[in-house]
Design a protein that fits this description.
mainly alpha; 101 residues; elongated
């Protein structure tokens, strides 16, 4: 087999490996998203409220007031739901440097 053919075969194998890895990670992230949605539906009383809170955070609402405005929930109710999501490790509270918790 000439060296050119060996290089072509190696190139095809490398490309197949890279495409396979990308495909694997895409499928893995979709399955992870489905698992989280199912967990929310099975474990929580009002999954629609939790979904709206998670969606608002994903859309960029990072403060309680922003989440309340986007979801339309009461501040105390939203705060309780956020605490449950943090306890379930679906959301994570991050305090910027220089701000009080």
């Amino acid at each position: 087999m000439p060296w050119g053919e060996i290089g072509s075969v190696l190139l095809v194998l490398v490309a197949a490996t890279v495409i396979g890895n990308v495909w694997f990670h895409m499928v893995e992230s979709v399955l992870d998203w489905i698992r989280r949605r199912l967990l929310l539906q099975q474990e929580l009383r009002e999954p629609a409220v939790y979904n709206s809170i998670v969606s608002s955070v994903a859309a960029g609402a990072t403060r309680l007031n922003d989440i309340v405005l986007k979801t339309g929930e009461e501040k105390t109710k939203a705060s309780r739901y956020i605490k449950v999501l943090v306890d379930m490790k679906i959301l994570e509270r991050i305090t910027p440097f220089g701000e009080n918790e």
